[in-house]
Amino acid sequence: MIATLFAARSRRQAIVERHKYAETQRAALETQIAEYLPLRQQADEAAEAARRAEVSAADSEDACRRRLRDLLTQVRVFAPAAADLSGIQLALSDARRRKTALADARQKLTALLAASGRPADALEPKFSCKLCQDTGTVNGRTCSCVHKVMQQLRRQEIEQLSSLSISSFDTMELRYYPNTMDAQSGVNVRAYMDRLLDGLKQYAEDFSPTESESLMLIGNAGLGKTHAALAIAGLVLEQGHDVIYVSSPDFFGKIEASRFDPSGDADTLLRTASTADLLILDDLGTEFVTPYFITVFYSLLNNRLGAGLPTIITTNITDGALLEKRYTEKISSRLSAFIPFRFLGEDIRPQKAAE
Predict the structure, then answer these.
(1) How remote is the C-alpha of 181 from its chain's centroid?
(2) Which contacts (CB < 8 Å, 24+ apart) does range 36-43 have?
(3) pLDDT per residue as tens digits for the range 298-308
(4) What phi, psi does 311 have (nearest 5°)?
C-alpha cells in the first residue's frame, strides 16, 4: 500500500516537472516568434523594394533604348543638311555682305540728300494716315481715317438732299409760333415749342448710339419737323457719329426700284440704313405703300430696335389709328416704342414767304 502511494507521488511529481518544462519551452518559442516577425516583415519589404528597383531598371533601360532610337532617327534626318552646311555658311556670308552694302548705300543716300538740302526721309512715302499707312485697316479693323471720310461724305450727301448748312436750332425762330393757347392741348404754343426744341437740342448734344432713345416728330406740315431733324443730324455729325438722313419716299422708292437688280443695291441700302449710329427717316406717310414696302419697313425697324440703335422719324400723321391702318399692327407696335414729340402751331412757310 505504502509502495503504491509512493509510486503515485513519483508519477505526479514527474508530470509536474514535464509541465514546467513545457511551459518553459512555450515561453521560449513565443519569444523567438516575437523576434522573428519583425525580421520577416523587414525581409518582405526588402524583397518588394528589390522587385521595384528591378522594374524601374527595366523601364529605364527601355527609355534609354527609345531615346537612342530617336537620336539615331534625328541623325538620319539632319545628315543631308549637315552635309550641306558649307552651302548654308556661304549663303549667310553673302547675306551679311549684302546687308553691309545696303547700309553703305543708305549712308551715301543720306549724305547726298543732306548735300542737296533735303531731309533724310525725303524719299520715304508720305502717308495721309500714319496709323494705317493709307491701307484703310488696322489689325483687321477699319481705320478711324476711313470712318472720318465716311462721315464727311455722309454730311455732303445730306447737304445735297437738304439745307443742312442752314438747318440748326439757332435758326428755328420762336416768333413763327403763335403766342396763343392751343385749343386741343390747352398750352401756350410758343412756350411749349420753346421747351420742345430745347429738349431736342439736348438730345442731340447728349447723343449716344447705345443709350439714346428713338424719337417720332409728329405734327402738321410746315411746323419745323424736318428742320429740327436736320439740326439734330448736324450736331450728331459734329460729334463724329455716323448719321443717315433719308426721305421716306425717296429711300423706299430706290429700294423698290432696285429690288430685282443683280448688283444688290437694295441690300446695300437697307444694310447701311440698318447699321448707322442714327437714322433719320423724313416724311413718313408720303411714300407709296406696297406689300414689299411693308416688309422692308418692318425689317428696318426691327433690326434697329433689336440692335438698340436710335431712329428719328418725322411724319404728318397725327392719328394713331390711321398710322396702324396704313402700316399694319406690327409696325404700329414698333413705332409705339418711339418717344413722341408733337409739334404745335401754324404753317411757318406762308409766314416766311409773306416777309
Answers:
(1) 52
(2) none
(3) 999 999 999 99
(4) -135, 140
Q: What's the pLDDT score for residue 254?
A: 86
By CB atoms closer than 10 A (0-12, 13-18, 19+), residue 236 is buried
- Cell numbers for 270, please give them: 437697307
Q: Which helix (H) or strand (E) holds 194?
A: helix 189-205
Alpha-carbon torsion (301, 304, 308, 313), positive or negative: negative
Please, are residues 236 and 243 in contact by the beta-carbon 8 Å criterion?
Answer: yes
Please report the pLDDT score of residue 258 as a whole number: 80
Which pLDDT score is estimated for 315?
A: 95
Q: Is the pTM of this model over 0.70?
A: no
DSSP state of 212: P
C-alpha cell at 217: 416728330
Q: Are strands 278-284 and 311-315 parallel, antiparallel or unpaired?
A: parallel
Q: Three cell numbers at 108? A: 551715301
pLDDT, greater one: 260 or 283: 283
